Request: fold
Amino acid sequence: MAIIYGVPPSPYVRKTLLAHAIKGISAELKPTMPGSDDSEFRAASPLGKIPGYRIDDNTAFADSSVIIAYLERTNSTNPLYPEDAVDYARALWLEEYSDTKFSEVVSALYFQRIIGPMFFQQETDQARVDDLVNNLIPEQLNYLEAQLAGNTLFVGNQFSVADLAIGSHMLSLHHTKFDVDSTRWPALAQFKESFMQRPEVIAQLAHENAVFGK
Ligand SMILES: N[C@@H](CCC(=O)N[C@@H](CS)C(=O)NCC(=O)O)C(=O)O
Reply:
């Protein structure tokens, strides 16, 4: 069985775990913090980022996008990449966008409200939170709302890696208690609602709540 190095509240580890669940693939989660100097982890993830992934003694690599692309090649159940070339490109772009820009602003709020106070005895910087909540996050939600164009999924009618990536970061936003206002972002609020009702997402959230002792 493959090993995933990481901790479940990381949106990238969450995305990787959810891809396994969607495809019905088992993997062992080996709790590993970002930057860990564990040599087995570092052989998989030389940059020290989670998730790292090990298939066997000789084969290990990192990055949620790489891991999911690998899974797709090995398992055709519930495909995560659209067949059509334009849809495929859009799905990859939205995955990339959500794993970079959207993640940047969501992670900043997640750090201010959860990780800083809980693990680093750091007080919340209210000015930073206000900027994130009032300006920086809404800007990204506006973009995502426009990308949905009134639909319930981001690309075509099939759940894809775009929905998986965006949904994974939306769960971090959910943990921060940021409200995706349905009068302002109706399609996105609906997307978030449906994503959170997926059985594998419900199971993942229960796992995360257990980690945080909720
Ligand atoms: N592109 C990577 C990003 C992974 C990532 O940035 N993980 C964070 C944890 S949420 C991390 O390990 N950060 C530590 C660092 O950047 O050194 C992926 O998709 O897996």
